[in-house]
Specification:
CATH architecture of chain A: 3-Layer(aba) Sandwich
Number of domains of chain A: 1
CATH topology of the largest domain in chain B: Rossmann fold
Distance between the termini of chain B: 42 Å
Radius of gyration of chain B: 20 Å
CATH superfamily of the largest domain in chain B: Thiamin diphosphate (ThDP)-binding fold, Pyr/PP domains
Structural class of chain A: alpha/beta
Order of helices and strands of chain A: HHHEHHEHEHEEEEHEHHH
Structural class of chain B: alpha/beta
Number of domains of chain B: 2
Distance between the termini of chain A: 75 Å
CATH class of chain A: Alpha Beta
Strand order of the largest sheet of chain B: 3-2-4-5-7-6-12
Number of helices of chain A: 11
CATH class of the largest domain in chain B: Alpha Beta
Largest sheet of chain B: 7 strands, mixed
CATH superfamily of chain A: Thiamin diphosphate (ThDP)-binding fold, Pyr/PP domains
Shape of chain B: globular
Oligomer: heterodimer
CATH architecture of the largest domain in chain B: 3-Layer(aba) Sandwich
Strand content of chain B: 15-25%
Strand order of the largest sheet of chain A: 2-1-3-4-8-7
Order of helices and strands of chain B: EHEHEHEHHEHEHEEEEHEEHEHEHH
Largest interface: A-B, 51 and 45 residues
Largest sheet of chain A: 6 strands, parallel
Number of strands of chain A: 8
Radius of gyration of chain A: 20 Å
Number of helices of chain B: 12
Chain lengths: ~325, ~325
Amino acid sequence: MAKTAEKKSKFSKEQYMKWYESMLLMRRFEEKTGQVYVQQKIKGFCHLYIGQEAIVAGTVSATKKEDKHITAYRDHAHPIGLGLHPKYVMAEMYAKITGCSKGKGGSMHIFSKEHNFLGGHGIVGGQVPLGAGIAFAEKYLGTDNVCVCSMGDGAVRQGALHEAFNMAMTWKLPVVFIVENNMYAMGTSVERTSNVHDLWKLGLAYDMPSKPVDGLTVESVHEAMEEAVARARRGDGPTFLEMKTYRYKGHSMSDAQTYRTKEEVKEYQKQDPIEKVIDTMKKNGWIDDAGIEAAEARVKALVDESVQFAEESPYPDPSELYKDVYADADYPYILE
Amino acid sequence: MRVIEFREALREAMSEEMRRDSTVFLMGEEVAEYNGAYKVSKGMLAEFGPKRVIDTPIAELGFAGIGVGAATNGLRPIVEFMTFNFSLVAIDQVINSAAKMLSMSGGQYNVPIVFRGPTASAGMLSSQHSQAFENWYANCPGLKVVVPSNGYDAKGLLKSAIRDNDPVIFMESEQMYGDKMEVPEEEYIIPLGVADVKKAGTDVTIVSFGKILKVAMAAAAELEKEGISAEVIDLRTVRPIDYDTVINSVKKTNRLVIVEEAWPLASISSEITFRVQKDAFDYLDAPIRRVTSADVPLPYAPTLIEASLPNVTRTVKAVKDVLYKN
């Protein structure tokens, strides 16, 4: 039975295990983030990724480790998906010196040079020209690396996106633009901000290959990304993918969510991207309840370790204040 | 020594750095095929080709951001704004991306980029094309701001700016591009953050920078005729500011006049005034005076421009005021 099913699946058991465990880690990490935020261990703005995990998981599996990634401020899951130990993300949100950005960035400015993750940007749409510029450098330097530039649906209404799309297409930059359309720019639905509700169609104005993707299904994300990344790698320029997804939680931790119904949220939770992966694995006989329990235990251990690491790490010493503002170590700051 | 124009000095700085380092490139509106709106980049497309001298659409926000992104990923872009008046639509990428990246990434990503172009007034261009934003950019930590006053300095300072590992705002003037000056053919570098005493003097210190330094120098020449010895300091860089040179001069002359083209509120002159009263209060024999643009958008009519911009007459008067000679 398992053997027959395996033939039908395009992706291997190992791939599914990776997707499952990676998405599960993002989910449990964000659930814990929400908990400790409520306990006021984390301050500032905090935007959770719960519900959108398939997009990062399918993107990571369709790219290579030299590729670059950049996104907006809903940015905890991207570096974790790329392999950064979650303890450095948690410590950053705890404002600790051991955080990936040494406690200077917080939830919205997670960076990991080691994993080619260039942030974590707080101005809606601001990362879109940056992503094009990162791709510009790859092309200029003659690599075959690609930049994956992610954004929320609010960003597509910003002028920065349209300027960057135009130049990225004119110059055939190796960039894949992904809009993670969770249907709400903070509390304003996509329908209320423009007459164009199919966001992928905005790419067509620049002759950019563009299409909608089921962002709640990791296989669909992977396949769309594979095609887009291949196009960029062979020098044929950018792609714009509208990943249709949903966030279960509010825009940020302080969102009362009066703009949508509980029924709508429940309806989307029936299409949960992690449950879908579990279903496929179960049908193929690749995982059973014991396997799920074991994965949950491994993930829980990582999340617990992350919280413990963040709790036990020190805050930055005041002497850190004048570090990392300039690369120039001798910069003469005005001290009074 | 050979004499070249200010624009040629800038071009030499860029071209020499591009020959030296293949990661340096120039992008902006009309920089390539048109040879530059003010011919600063004339001939550079022919030498370096379209990969390194790049015409952009009129999209300052977009290409400023592309420059910053490229700078985080191994390149050293020179981004030309046709004027810094147009940098206002790009200012999000300058302030929120370029100036913040190193800090908010905890030191992981620096941004070695130069944003350059002309600043301030340039004839009868009215309100939107005549603004001096040196103090705006100088306010922001993470940036360095260079405002050269002559071709020799421009070349040495621009080479430093291109080699700098932090984002540098480099502000020129349309009215200086044709200025001629002796500039040596041999390579030289002028470090950022070091002021230049353009003229030694004993009675009063005049601090200025950029194009308006000419007004300070002309005023000093006028004053000389009347037996008043002014020391003129060219800041050259307004972030960081070389306070020591200013303070040391004031300790000697005991009087200070600052001349700049920005509007008065929260300007470089406000900042220098604060610092001098703090560090040299007991050395001052008169209140500090300044000559700035009038506190209005620059109008079109020549009579109103004359009444608005810093000039020799106002500067001479300010100097005489601090000397109690009016």
